[in-house]
Write a structure and sequence with these properties.
CATH topology of chain A: Tetracycline Repressor, domain 2
Largest interface: A-B, 41 and 41 residues
Oligomer: homodimer
CATH class of chain A: Mainly Alpha
Low-confidence stretches of chain A: none
Number of helices of chain A: 9
Radius of gyration of chain A: 18 Å
CATH architecture of chain A: Orthogonal Bundle
Mean pLDDT of chain A: 94
Strand content of chain A: under 5%
Shape of chain A: elongated
Amino acid sequence: MPITKVNEEELLDRLTDVFRTYGYDGASLSKISEATGLQRASLYHRFPGGKEDMAKVVLERAGQWLFNRVLAPLSGPGTPAQRIRNMANELHSFYAGGQNCCLLDSLSFGSDDNAIRQHVQQGMSAWVNELAKVAQEGRVSAKKARQKAQDAISQIQGTLVVARVIKDYGPFERMLAELPTTLLGKQA
Amino acid sequence: MPITKVNEEELLDRLTDVFRTYGYDGASLSKISEATGLQRASLYHRFPGGKEDMAKVVLERAGQWLFNRVLAPLSGPGTPAQRIRNMANELHSFYAGGQNCCLLDSLSFGSDDNAIRQHVQQGMSAWVNELAKVAQEGRVSAKKARQKAQDAISQIQGTLVVARVIKDYGPFERMLAELPTTLLGKQA
DNA sequence: TATTATTTACCGAACGTTCGGTATATGTCA
DNA sequence: TGACATATACCGAACGTTCGGTAAATAATA
């Protein structure tokens, strides 16, 4: 088998960067080609389904990343507050301190029949459900727990938008520090 | 003067819709033409600067809308909490209960040298400053007031992202109800 | 008539995608 | 081991379509 010009991991990293920065429509094959170092035709060899395929794989991978690194600690040992602080640390590196914007945001624009959008929706829904589990350890109703989970996701997304627009990463940092309170309530 | 096929206000309304939904890159001239009922050349008659011109005008108009309807009540009569509740009501209609996403989000993607992005940044910065003024009426330091303002904007943006992705408008509604607390602290 | 809104027709460039072909690795059988 | 078929990874060039944008002509107001 011939040697690959760029290995799978790095290829997906760069692909992710482009989709994150420019969104689905903004991520042209020219930009993708430049960012990955692969010609258009080579990209079609790796992703027979074309651009849509690329976005799906990128989204799937980010979801696994999130699940393994960010959500996994939530089911681990330690008090709920400790586990949430662990998640906050992972989130910090996941979003590069607020400098990386969220694929769930950038890929959620466009028409409703967009093939990518349902994947985005599933991703965020799964995330909410996972956070709601921990929130419920704070001995609140399922409904309240779900609300807290939604609030946490909202704050993550919101601080990332603010970071991207006005380039101030303070809100993102503060939001991570407040995550235990957000998800569990007053008691830390 | 020949009669206009579509008057300025309605033209800008539809234009705003397209940019909101698809972002700058996703808003192709074909989509814009279809949404407005005007041919490409007609659009260039109305906006000599082309697509970038359209986006600027749309952004400028949204900014004025925000300033006149949403931010103005903040300097009006009544207690700070009352004025913030007024703003929340205006925000509710401004974003159609969470169904309209924010131009500051959709137009903030793309490369850094994007001509639109600095307009977006100025818009959000002005918004933060305005909110910080009210927050400071809660007798807190300028720094704390600015943080509260940023938190409020973050929550607005975040709940709108969540609404767009998973089509749940609960977080947006709850966030509006909590705005007085968010901006002023415990005392309402 | 002068001005203005809109249209048709068109432009070069870029879009996502596909094709034909080359070079490098692996598998296999003599 | 050598020779050859197969599979993989890649590229240059082109596909038809759509992009953002323009020029010339028509229609309608003042």
